[in-house]
Amino acid sequence: MTDALSHRIADSRDDLVALTCELIRVPTRNPPGENYRAICELLETRLRRTGFDCQLIRATGAPGDTDAFPRWNIVSRREGRRPGPCLHFNGHTDVVTVGEGWTRDPFGAAVEGDRIYGRGACDMKGGLAAAIVAAEAFIATYPDFAGAIEISGTADEESGGYGGVAHLAREGWFAPGRVDHVIIPEPLGKDRICLGHRGAWWAEIETRGEIAHGSMPFLGDCAVRHMGAVIAAFEAELFPSLAARRTDMPVIPDGARAGTLNINALHGGAPERAPDDTALPACNVPDRCVMQIDRRVLVEEGVDAAAEEIAALLDRLKATRPGFDYALREINRVIPSMTDPDAPVVTTLQGAIADTLGAEAAFVASPGSYDQKHIDRIGTLKNCVAYGPGILELAHKPDEWIGITDMLDSARVMGRVMERLLLP
Ligand SMILES: [Zn+2]
């Protein structure tokens, strides 16, 4: 990287810290999805300074969008002086709930040594600030650059992204030809490139029985026992089979390099008793039991096959277990997304990490998902990765923090990416 850009980014340390703190101090908790308009306006004021055209876009009608909690997004674009590719940085502006265990003000943005503390510091306001500072430094160093730089701040990533990137993708903002390269500065670490994520299939399984007096259970049919048979089949067949399916996706941590299934919830029969409840329960054979499952899906499996596998298991029980009947309802599906390691955004980042940090970039994939799914499926743009500063394990934890040196290093890498893509 040229010394001019590197020095300019190093000199912007205080500004980067100030911007990160400003972003953290806007409490954009999701749910309910608050202060989206305020953080978009903060970004707009900031980005207009360097000549970005900004548009604020509300995802009207998206899940969760109400007049009390409107889903606002910002897309900003800075044209270069000649034709060339468009490089887009996308950061989600929402943060998860605070939770217990904080020793600092979650929205106070305390700066202590090399760390900035706050909810959203690493996931991912620090990454968004690093991309902004990198772009500003690049524009100041190379006013004649080719192509365009876009920076978006989007809502609702933590709740599926339907009021954010999914909405923008549906409206064509990520169409190939409009945008060429997308980097999402999620906290994956400054020397790692995240190629994608596993998919997910969430569903509800309901078993049915027949209500009867609890003293004569043989006169009814217990839906919870039927669900027990489902769990037994999971243990005997499904869990061992899932664990044996190893993916070529570089998913971290290693335990997630297989298909997984979590039982999110299980409800059947009488409601749970409150600790202060002095009433005795009524004696009934439960006629309904409902399980919520979260199946994480490998790119080699596909979501349809994962869903069909569960349905087939339930059908086998129906054919062999007397009285067994079920209903299966899909709650949500997320496609697995995996960008080709030879895609231009990947090889450019690899080169930029080598140039800037002298390190060989590691490829990773996320066990959960992030907004890449929408850019891939709805936007049909395959040239997208996550790359940004921060320690993934700190996301959603109490006393979340971002390292200032890490932000500066990843800003230099992003600056180098711009040099490689937007200079003739
Ligand atoms: Zn995130």
Oligomer: single chain
Mean pLDDT: 97
Number of structural units classed as domains: 2
Q: What kind of sheet is the major sheet?
A: 6 strands, mixed
Percentage of residues in strands: 15-25%
Report how far apart the termini are: 15 Å
Relative helix content: 25-40%
- For the record, the CATH class of the largest domain is Alpha Beta
**Ligands present:** zinc ion
The third-level CATH topology of the largest domain is Aminopeptidase
Return residue spans where pLDDT drops below 50 for at least 5 consecutive residues. none
* Structural class designation: alpha/beta
Number of helices: 10
Beta-strand segment tally: 16
The named CATH superfamily of the largest domain: Zn peptidases
Shape: elongated
Series of secondary-structure elements, N-terminal to C-terminal: HHHEEEEEHEHEEEHEEHEEHEHEEH
| Rg, alpha carbons | 24 Å
Strand order of the largest sheet: 1-2-6-3-7-15
The CATH architecture assignment of the largest domain turns out to be 3-Layer(aba) Sandwich
Protein name: Succinyl-diaminopimelate desuccinylase
Organism: Roseivivax jejudonensis
Keywords: Cobalt, Hydrolase, Metal-binding, Zinc
Cofactor: Co(2+); Zn(2+)
